[in-house]
Amino acid sequence: MKKKKRIVKHGSPTIRKKVKSVAPTAMEYILLFNTCEIKKEKLAEIDKVIDEKIVVNRSRYEGVSNLVKGGGISPLLLNNQPLFQSSYTPFYNRFPALADTVRTAADTTSAGSGAPEITDFRSLNAPLTPFSLPKPSLGINGIQKYDLLTGKYIANNDPFGLNRDIFAGTNFFGGSAIPWYFIACVHYMECSFSFKRHLHNGDPLTGYTVHVPANRPKVGHAPPFTFEESAVDALKLMKYDQVTNWSLSYILLKLEGYNGFGYNRKGIHTPYLWSYSNHYTKGKYVKDGVYDANAVSTQLGAAVILKRMEQRALISIPRN
Questions:
Q1: What are the pLDDT digits (tens) for 87-142?
Q2: Distances in Å between the alpha carbon of 59 and those of 28, 54, 79, 80, 153?
Q3: Could you say which of 133, 230, 302, 315 has the lowest number of CB atoms within 10 Å?
Q4: Where are the domains of the chain?
Q5: 261 φψ region: left (φ > 0), alpha (ψ -120 to 50), beta (else)
Q6: Neighbour-count burial of 4, counting CB atoms closer than 10 A to its CB (0-12 exposed, 13-18 middle, 19+ buried)
Q7: Are the beta carbons of 19 and 256 closer than 8 angstroms?
Q8: Are strands 175-176 and 170-171 parallel, antiparallel or unpaired?
Q9: What is the 3-state secondary structure (H, E, C) of the chain?
Q10: Phi and psi at residue 146, to the nearest 5°
């Protein structure tokens, strides 16, 4: 008697639905930043934070950035001495041949014509740094931009800021160094600007980190640690030393990612970026996993800090 073949019925294949990302797109980040309006009653408080916590420590943040790029810890930093000064160079000083070419062409075309001579563009840039530029004025169209050719602020008709000096902070031979202002924002979000805490998660430098990521930094010796060596470990752990394009959208994505994208699921913009601006009113996670729709964050948003620093011509963030 022949045995019947056993027929095994397979269930229909499972079709997985695509889950829409809760993180904003690059264009959405740029649009949010460009339409961000800082609450006027908060300007004095924000400026105080920028002046007393961020700008004064710029050389220290730049030092960390250079150490990440260079791959080591300098003994000069162990005593908290700033090793690296500002690396900012005015645009035309980076391309001196360009200024000479324009100058020569202008002299050639205007010779004997009675036309006024063109100002040497290099002389316009000689005294300029992000800290010496006059403060921009707010017009009908919002923040104005500084024109290096005329030495004046003019209307900013470029909605995405693509005409900015995108070469600032760029190393064409090895990618881009981590912007010092990004490190400053992470320092604020994780450590409240304390140089006695790990940049990883705000745990004290007197021991290894306890919270995620635990048992850091790995620097070859036991505690205590300096802020610089721990910060280098934290940034390399996140593979920020491998990033080649520190655009505005990437910076905002990474800053929001530090505290997660849960607010987007609630239909609001995260206060970690947009608190103190028109993009945030209320709604807050009062503790892990517990969301209160009526709670209001009193923490200054990181994107608002960057927005105000650009308004004051302290920084210029590439848009692409």
A1: 444 443 444 554 454 444 444 444 454 544 444 434 444 444 444 444 444 444 44
A2: 32, 10, 14, 11, 27
A3: 133
A4: 26-88+129-193+225-311
A5: alpha
A6: exposed
A7: no
A8: antiparallel
A9: CCCCCCCCCCCCCCCCCCCCCCCCCHHHHHHHHHCCCECHHHHHHHHHHHHHHHHHHHHHHHHHHHHHHHCCCCHHHCCCCCCCCCCCCCHHHHCHHHHHHHHHHHHHHHCCCCCCCCCCHHHHHCCCCCCCCCCCCEECCEECEEECCCCEEECCCCCCCCCCCCCCCEECCCEECCCHHHHHHHHHHHHCCCCCECCCCCCECCCCCCCCCCCCCCCCCCCCCCHHHHHHHHHHHCCHHHCCCCCHHHHHHHHHHCCCCHHHHCCCCCHHHHCCECCCCCCEEEECCEEECCCCCCCCCHHHHHHHHHHCCCCCCCCC
A10: -90, 125
Averaged pLDDT score across all residues of the chain: 76
pTM for this model (two decimals):
0.65
pLDDT classification of 222: cutoffs 50, 70, 90: very high
Beta-bridged to residue 154, according to DSSP, are 145
